[in-house]
Design brief:
125 residues, mainly beta, Immunoglobulin-like, four-stranded antiparallel sheet, 42% strand, globular
C-alpha cells in the first residue's frame, strides 16, 4: 500500500488536514483520465482540473504549462470534470458553475481522454 508515493504497509498514517469525508479504495481495475485544457479560442493553457463523482470532490491537480494533464489510477465510473483557475490565491477549492462541467466515463483498466474548456472560477463569499 502506498500513500503519497511511499510504501506505508503496516505503518500508521496520520491525517492532519481537516476533512469531512475520507474514502479508501482498494481496487485492481483502475482507469486513467488524460486530456488538455483550452481557452475560449481552443488554445492550450495551464489551469487546474477539478474532478467530482456523485457531487463529491475526488481530485484537484495542476496541468502542465501546455494544458496537458493525466490522472492515473482512478476508480472506474462516471465523473464530472472542470478546468478552473490556476491561481495560488485560490486555496485549492473554488465553486465551479455546476452546469459547466464535462461528463467523463473512466472505464475499468482503460483510459478516457477529454478536452476541458477553461471557466472563470471565483472565491466563495
Amino acid at each position: 500500500m502506498k500513500f503519497q508515493g511511499r510504501d506505508v504497509l503496516g505503518q500508521e498514517i496520520e491525517l492532519t488536514a481537516p476533512t469531512d469525508q475520507l474514502e479508501i479504495v482498494f481496487a485492481d481495475d483502475f482507469g486513467r483520465l488524460e486530456g488538455t485544457i483550452t481557452d475560449a479560442d481552443g488554445k492550450p493553457l495551464a489551469a487546474s482540473v477539478l474532478l467530482e463523482r456523485d457531487g463529491v470532490q475526488q481530485m484537484v491537480l495542476q496541468s502542465e504549462n501546455n494544458g496537458r494533464f493525466a490522472m492515473p489510477k482512478i476508480p472506474p465510473g462516471h465523473y464530472t470534470a472542470w478546468a478552473i483557475a490556476a491561481d495560488p490565491r485560490i486555496a485549492g477549492y473554488t465553486e465551479p458553475n455546476r452546469d459547466s462541467g464535462t461528463p467523463v466515463d473512466v472505464p475499468p483498466l482503460g483510459s478516457a481522454t477529454v478536452t476541458l474548456a477553461f471557466i472563470t472560477a471565483y472565491l466563495p463569499r
